[in-house]
Amino acid sequence: MAIADNVAAVEAAIEKNKALANRQDQVTLVGVTKYHTVAEAQQVVAAGVKNVAENRPEGLAEKQAAFADHKDLVWHFIGTLQRRKVKQVINEIDYFHALDRRSLAQEIQKRALKPIKCFVEVNVSGEASKSGLQLTDVAPFIQSLAEFDRIQVVGLMTMAPIDADAAALHGYFKSLREKRDEIKALGLAWAPCQELSMGMTHDYEIAVQEGATFVRVGTRLFEA
Ligand SMILES: *Cc1c(COP(=O)(O)O)cnc(C)c1O
């Protein structure tokens, strides 16, 4: 299949799973281009994807240079960001998906020229190898960000374990949704927390059923 067909298939699957869950709200497809060339990324954009994600500063710079004429693209940074790289990245993006520690929040506060839309990353499964806060630490962490006027917590983000079965995935994504609802209900000025960034190639359909508002899909878009 061509890339344009893959994009159409993923968009259709998003709609199908929204309908299954009786959802009328918006789900944004974020195209993850990190393992792919500029030429391949161009096909994804040509197929109508307006949201693009990279996970390394170098990859972001390369793709943004190539798409300098595309002023309508929305840029997402989805990888772990080292503190010393914050300055290079933070003012170039529209969404940051991996806020997971106070030292990073402090550095963003120091370097950002305007409020940055951030997702707090949550390790819902508790796997030792994964970054992100434990569910129980999410509310205190977000409360502690009050002093940082350059950080706007727009939502929560998670990555599910690669080997989880469907039932487990439903459980992980539901937990993140419930935590999102809990934070949203606090009504914090700096944390509207309306969004859910969850779902990748292997699990985005289940994530949509469980309320994802941003799905981050890479591999599936580029399949031959
Ligand atoms: C690579 C990556 C994705 C996309 O993964 P695929 O399995 O290729 O769809 C999504 N989110 C994050 C954080 C990633 O690093």
Automatic annotation (TrEMBL):
Record domain Alanine racemase N-terminal: where: 9-222
A Pfam family assignment: Ala_racemase_N
Protein name: Pyridoxal phosphate homeostasis protein
PANTHER family (UniProt xref): PROLINE SYNTHETASE CO-TRANSCRIBED BACTERIAL HOMOLOG PROTEIN, PYRIDOXAL PHOSPHATE HOMEOSTASIS PROTEIN
Record-linked Gene3D superfamilies: Alanine racemase
N6-(pyridoxal phosphate)lysine modification, residue list: 34
PROSITE patterns (UniProt xref): UPF0001
Domain of life the protein comes from: Bacteria
Gene Ontology molecular function: pyridoxal phosphate binding
Key words of the record: Pyridoxal phosphate
Record has Flavoprotein as a keyword: no
InterPro entries noted in UniProt: Ala_racemase_N, PLP-binding_barrel, PyrdxlP_homeostasis
Cofactor(s), by name: pyridoxal 5'-phosphate
Stated role: Pyridoxal 5'-phosphate (PLP)-binding protein, which is involved in PLP homeostasis.
Annotated organism of origin: Loigolactobacillus bifermentans DSM 20003
Family: Belongs to the pyridoxal phosphate-binding protein YggS/PROSC family.
Keyword Repeat listed: no
